[in-house]
Amino acid sequence: MTGPHLMAETERLVIRPFTRWDYGNWLQSHLDRLPSQHKYDAGYQDMSGCTEQWFAEMIGKQDEMMAKDEVYIFGVFLKATGVMVGTVDVSTLMRYNFNWGRIGYVLHNQHWQKGFGKESVAATLRLAFTKIGYHRIEAHIDLDNIPSISLVESVGMTYECTRKGFIYERGMWQDQLVYYQNAE
């Protein structure tokens, strides 16, 4: 499932799958990152290995994952300028009688505090419910990731539980908060 039907627009943003023509914009958005602002912000990264060929292969893999209904990865672009401000993804956890997915998001730190995170996550949730057919979307968040907690709460996601030893990160099993939203 790809193409223009997997695009969302808000007043200021366009959320859509990446194409190979996005390479220059994608690379520049990463190069323009500020130094890390906190432990959940990657900040500036070495992008020397991210060639145009590497990017084209990444786009091919993303297209394959979308075609298999595994992961939908969207670039978030400013409508007025086309500048990429971040990414949002939705992963299928289970279909069948569940239609259950997980949302993730990264907003480049040079674009923080402008409401783009809230705007892009809200639009992607609507897209996931109306065009990809999910019934339930979860966000899995580290216990102390206050900006992420604030973001999901601001778009109306509800705290459900804390899953103990849920994800293996930083060399150990970590607890995660689970927030959810169901299709209306």
Automatic annotation (TrEMBL):
Protein's recorded name: GNAT family acetyltransferase
One Pfam short name: Acetyltransf_3
Single GO MF annotation: acyltransferase activity, transferring groups other than amino-acyl groups
Gene3D superfamilies per record: 3.40.630.30
InterPro entries, per the entry: Acyl_CoA_acyltransferase, GNAT_dom, N-acetyltransferase
SUPFAM superfamilies xrefs: Acyl-CoA N-acyltransferases (Nat) (SSF55729)
Record key words, sorted: Transferase
